[in-house]
């Protein structure tokens, strides 16, 4: 039995049963599919691939629980490696993170930087490729302030990277909670590659925890993530209608 297999077995034996402990977070209906990895869900068959997953940041809980504002990241590596080794056991070979450490809140910025540094090192230790595609939910150069065209460009570049990585192993995408930035990426994948109607893609995004009220500029009716998706859906429809005659 490998070193990581032993670590995983010990960790799972000490973890409470998922069926007994799964707690549905505000705005979330579907609990995580794994007892160790937060908000882990398979996207199923998508664009010919069955090895793409979404999740919350595997490091967030570790950093928050240990309050390591003054501790070196190396002190938490054993716990981080347990989680990343679990993902390796699930076949995941690439993690694409949307976390953006920059923040006006000094404490939050420091915590996010620690999460990123910890995950990068743990990925390296267990043999998982780590790719950073940082973007914020709000503020300058974020989903809130970018144009529809800019968001579409980021989404398409990200999806290209996801499917390219999926050729050689499982891929997990995440932001912090795995609900909002991860949600808009997954919704785009559904619309672009599975031809889901935008309403269906948004419904799934909300079901998996998207906080449309928090990121709303219309009194909580919809989020700017969803507004982008509706605009992008029209762009995709236009692209398809333009390409149709050429294909005939």
Description:
The chain has a five-stranded mixed beta sheet, with helices on both faces. The chain has helices at residues 3-14, 18-21, 60-66, 77-89, 106-126, 148-166, 181-193, 198-207, 224-247, and strands spanning 41-42, 52-55, 92-97, 129-132, 170-174. Helix 6 (148-166) crosses helix 9 (224-247), helix 7 (181-193) runs antiparallel to helix 8 (198-207) and helix 7 packs parallel to helix 9. With 248 residues, the chain is α/β, with parallel strands linked by helices. The chain has a domain at 26-178: Protein-Tyrosine Phosphatase, Chain A (Alpha-Beta Complex). The protein contains nine helices and five strands.
Remind me, CATH topology of one domain?
Protein-Tyrosine Phosphatase, Chain A
CATH class category name of one domain:
Alpha Beta
In percent terms, what proportion of residues is strand?
A: 5-15%
Helix amount, in percent? 40-55%
The arrangement of helices and strands along the chain is HHEEHHEHEHEHHH
What is the correct CATH architecture of one domain? Alpha-Beta Complex
What does the radius of gyration come to? 18 Å
Structural class call reads alpha/beta
Quick one: overall form? globular
Number of helices: 9
Q: Report the biggest beta sheet as strand number plus sense, adding barrel if it closes.
A: 5 strands, mixed
Which residue ranges are poorly predicted, with pLDDT under 50 across at least 5 consecutive positions? 5-26
Strand order of the largest sheet: 1-2-5-3-4
Query: What gap, in angstroms, lies between the N and C termini?
Result: 56 Å
Count of extended strands: 5
What value does the average pLDDT take? 86
